Every structure is written in structure tokens, then in C-alpha cells.
């Protein structure tokens, strides 16, 4: 990431084990792509992602739907729904993507396609600020 020159600032942390190195309500949008899966980022990291997102800001999260990730996906969706029921955020989108990425084995393939499916979730943090009149 540093070698690309695309980032103004890089900071490291282990999601789920330590706080993100950012102040509360700092980002307009937070994305986690390719990391929400079995043995990677735990579902317990979701409140920390919310903490650093501004009210009215968006969170874009993804996970895979391959057989070895189904238990994690079910835990993730329960956690997502729980935060929504608590009023922490509103679901904007949950979109299944059939050909998310190439499967590494036939067992992981979705119906023999050679691909696995995935899901994109977009949430908006509450409270959503009122629209400015003008």
C-alpha cells in the first residue's frame, strides 16, 4: 500500500483485537472488502467500524458465500441485524453477487460454475442528520 503512493496516511491495527487508530465519527465512509471471513476479521469488530463513522456516514462491507464461510456469514448477518435493531444503522443494500471470485476448489464452487458468490452490504449510520435547507 505504501509503495503505490495512493495513500496520504497508513496506520496498522488488528481489527477485533484493538481499537482503530482514528477518532470517533471521523470518516464519511468505511469499507471492509475481502476481510470479513472465517479466521479473518471477527464480527465483534463491527461496533468499532461504527465508532469511526460519522452519523449519516456509510459502511460498505462484503463477505463470501462459499461453503467454508457460511457459518461466519450467518454470524455476520446476525450481528448486522442486531445493530440495525438497536438503531445503530439502517440497511441500504444487501446484494448477492453470483460470480464474486474464482473458486479455489470444486467444493467451494457455486453449483459447479468455478466461482463463489458473495454479498455486498451497505449501511448508513444513525442518527442520520437532518437535511440542510437552503
Automatic annotation (TrEMBL):
Superkingdom as given in the UniProt entry: Eukaryota
Matches recorded under InterPro entries: SAM-dependent_MTases_sf
SUPFAM superfamilies linked: S-adenosyl-L-methionine-dependent methyltransferases
Protein name: MET27 protein
Organism encoding this protein: Chauna torquata (Southern screamer)
Taxonomic lineage: Eukaryota, Metazoa, Chordata, Craniata, Vertebrata
Gene that encodes the chain: Mettl27
Amino acid at each position: 500500500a505504501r509503495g503505490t503512493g495512493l495513500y496520504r496516511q497508513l496506520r496498522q491495527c488488528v481489527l477485533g483485537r484493538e481499537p482503530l487508530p482514528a477518532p470517533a465519527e471521523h470518516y464519511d465512509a468505511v469499507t471492509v472488502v475481502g476481510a470479513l471471513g472465517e479466521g479473518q476479521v471477527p464480527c465483534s469488530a463491527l461496533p468499532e467500524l461504527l465508532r469511526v463513522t460519522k452519523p449519516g456516514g456509510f459502511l460498505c462491507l462484503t463477505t463470501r458465500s462459499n461453503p467454508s464461510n457460511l457459518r461466519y456469514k450467518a454470524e455476520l448477518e446476525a450481528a448486522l441485524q442486531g445493530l440495525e435493531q438497536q438503531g445503530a444503522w439502517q440497511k441500504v443494500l444487501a446484494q448477492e453477487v453470483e460470480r464474486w471470485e474464482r473458486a479455489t476448489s470444486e467444493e467451494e464452487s457455486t453449483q459447479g460454475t468455478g466461482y463463489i458468490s458473495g454479498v455486498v452490504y451497505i449501511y448508513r449510520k444513525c442518527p442520520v442528520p437532518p437535511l440542510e435547507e437552503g
